[in-house]
Amino acid sequence: MSVRVVALGGGHGLHASLSALRQVASDVTAVVTVADNGGSSGRLRGEFGVLPPGDLRMALAALCGDDEWGQTWAQVLQHRFDGDGEMRGHVVGNLLIVGLWELMGDHVRALDWVGRLLGAQGRVLPMAVTPMDITAEVRGLDPADPARLTSVRGQVEVATTDGEIVSVSLDPADPEPCAEALEALASADWVVLGPGSWFTSVIPHLMVPRLRRALEATQARLVVVLNLEPQAGETMGYGPEDHLGALFEHAPDLKVHTVLADSGTVRDRDLLHQVVASAGAELLVCDVAASGDSARHDADLLADAFRRIMLGA
User: Fold this and answer.
1) Where are its TM segments located (predicted)?
2) Residues 6+ apart with CB under 8 A from 72
3) What is the pLDDT of residues 257-271, one digit of tens each?
4) Whole-prediction pTM value?
5) Number of structural domains found in the chain
């Protein structure tokens, strides 16, 4: 059975969902958050004025095959330089992607060429082709007035804030979406949103107006994969229902088919079921966490869950 899936997110969360989806679907497209301003990506973004390549690189690595060719290229792509010079901390895949962007002048064409080199089992696209920053309204940063909202700018700064994130937005507010990403959403059978850094990798997709409208209009069925645990800075104290609440607050018209949660993270199943049902969605609770690592999804277990949801297997 041919299944076309679009997965949205960024970083390690998207890497996990893609590693699972390529075991399940015949046609996988990753749509990646591109607002990172830290590390190697931030340095390249600042020097060359390009999109940050890091999350795009991780998505490409996740789609590499399990054969020697695929795994070798995945390791090369993810290799980070050591040493004490200017190259310290840069990642080979980031440099390769930026080099092809400069050579070809086309974000999508260059990423497709990297995918061909790697033998990637799917396609990787940016969510937008306009450089952007994430901004957040944060409560609790002013000791003299804990209720006061403070604006925080930058993905790294938002992800590591000591306050409570109330809302996030993008600057510019209406970045140019990737046309191929809109096309993929229009023709998909399933869309997967999450897991990942909730306010800086997952929700930003809903802040691109034309991308959000495409998500609301698609005939594809949407699966939301919840995180395994709260993230320091972004979602401290959040339970599964709080993650969903933040998602729906930013995109109240989003139509969700299934919410997937790990059995070890659900403390109040009745409450979560109530929140999911109020959104008109179904809830699947099963084991998807990696053994011995409560913060990461197991790709094989996640693939089994996707088969149950998408194929009824």
Assistant:
1) none
2) none
3) 999 999 999 989 999
4) 0.94
5) 3
